[in-house]
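Regression test attached.
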Amino acid sequence: MDSTFLTIIEILGTIAFAISGIRLASAKKFDWFGAYVVGLVTAIGGGTIRDVMLGCTPFWMLNSIYLAVTGISLLSVIIFGKYLIRLQNTFFIFDTIGLALFVVVGIQKSLALDYPFWVAIVMGTITGSAGGVLRDIFINEAPLIFRKDIYAMACVIGGLFYWACYWINLDEVTTQIISAASVIVVRIVAVKYHLSLPVLKGEESELDS
Amino acid sequence: MDSTFLTIIEILGTIAFAISGIRLASAKKFDWFGAYVVGLVTAIGGGTIRDVMLGCTPFWMLNSIYLAVTGISLLSVIIFGKYLIRLQNTFFIFDTIGLALFVVVGIQKSLALDYPFWVAIVMGTITGSAGGVLRDIFINEAPLIFRKDIYAMACVIGGLFYWACYWINLDEVTTQIISAASVIVVRIVAVKYHLSLPVLKGEESELDS
Amino acid sequence: MDSTFLTIIEILGTIAFAISGIRLASAKKFDWFGAYVVGLVTAIGGGTIRDVMLGCTPFWMLNSIYLAVTGISLLSVIIFGKYLIRLQNTFFIFDTIGLALFVVVGIQKSLALDYPFWVAIVMGTITGSAGGVLRDIFINEAPLIFRKDIYAMACVIGGLFYWACYWINLDEVTTQIISAASVIVVRIVAVKYHLSLPVLKGEESELDS
């Protein structure tokens, strides 16, 4: 893919992720700094965990754009809060495209470091979804993706498509587009038709806390 | 110790840890994917934190058996849920043996990297108990080991036995067996006689949240 | 600054941070081991996250003083609990001086590794405030610094003063003193005059959990 186009998508994805964190922080009455941190962690948390596990310097320490964009996201929420809420569908699209790109970036980076494909799929999934888990821990909620959504499953499926494209020898760009598209399609279909994974049942008596 | 035997014990320990995570996730109504992630984090979280601090690649990224075994654990809970509950004592034994082995592995790995013994004991304790702490954070409970159990103390005591055996020049295998056995004995004795550490008292007025 | 003096301040800061963790753990009825872990994480958590991101071995693995000092802090709380509470103002001073020093240490370490200034300021802030965030996650509270305090803002402001001093070519010692002093002044002024950042308002309806 063209790298300017990729960068624009990545920034839009970062904004969408940051704003999702900032809005939840606002519902919890966090102050501006707290909201900034929650937004930042949502946007860069997944990639940071990935990079620490891969043994790389976290990506956001190499380019200040991620911190700047999170600041702009916070300013937007402070200034345009009410109007932003009406853009819910727009954010859903950014968020989904951002998710798809984060997954592809995570897979690519792992493969470039010679990790096997199953590690790359795990890293793609972590890149896409660990930020949201950290966000939910910070605002002291049981992580949403474990209970409601096939958010993370979309990452795994995108990773499996990447793998499939690789095995049938498609070129890199086509592979990335198909993988990203599969994440987007799965996510949109799941939300539209309220699809979710089965809940693991029973055993309330096991929780002895 | 014989390495095939060690591998079998390690896999049984991983299964016991994973199932403990999956069962708590089920009590919180997590979906299958969420239960898988909580099981995985319980099983590999401690070793991952250890490896990141030691500057190594996380162990589970080098062998797909840990992810596979967690998947099999999830399947077992989905299929045999009710019957598994009756095996509580069996799981306690696996869990305790797994804990003992995880502690020994954590100590060995740290010593092999030339860290001093006190770091190795901390790493053994982290290997054995940090996964359970992450599990409790993910399901949004105050970590159980801080309130109820001498789980983590068993790790520390196992580490001290390792140290003692080393100073009196016992060979490596005997040292490992004695260290692992001390973890198992302490844990079983503590649970059987309801031993626990004193609670730190008072100061409710300090919590200003 | 004189290194013996610095070491004494660092140890006092570690004690103040550890005791803040131990006291909150005590309000949650944690046992001694749990209180020790929460105290330790409060004292060394920020520096550990910094070192992992910078790709260094966590500082406390190179010197056992931090674990020892946390143990002494726990013993003090167990033995002198009630008397320690009366020393609240003394702890506030240690805590604030410790915070200031932690920020300066985090900035210095990052600059020594050739990271740009904005990374150093983030690392200084993480060194000073991430331990408290981990503490609050461990005791299962929404992190306090995101809701009540300009604790973390004091770190950022201290970092900006460091930067300013560097640009006008002040020598290293003067730069460090000014930076640390700015953290202390901001924190004291904020607490004395009950200054806080604005809360991000509204959007309760967004929290769909």
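Expected vs. actual: identical. Chain C touches chain A through 33 residues (CB under 8 Å).
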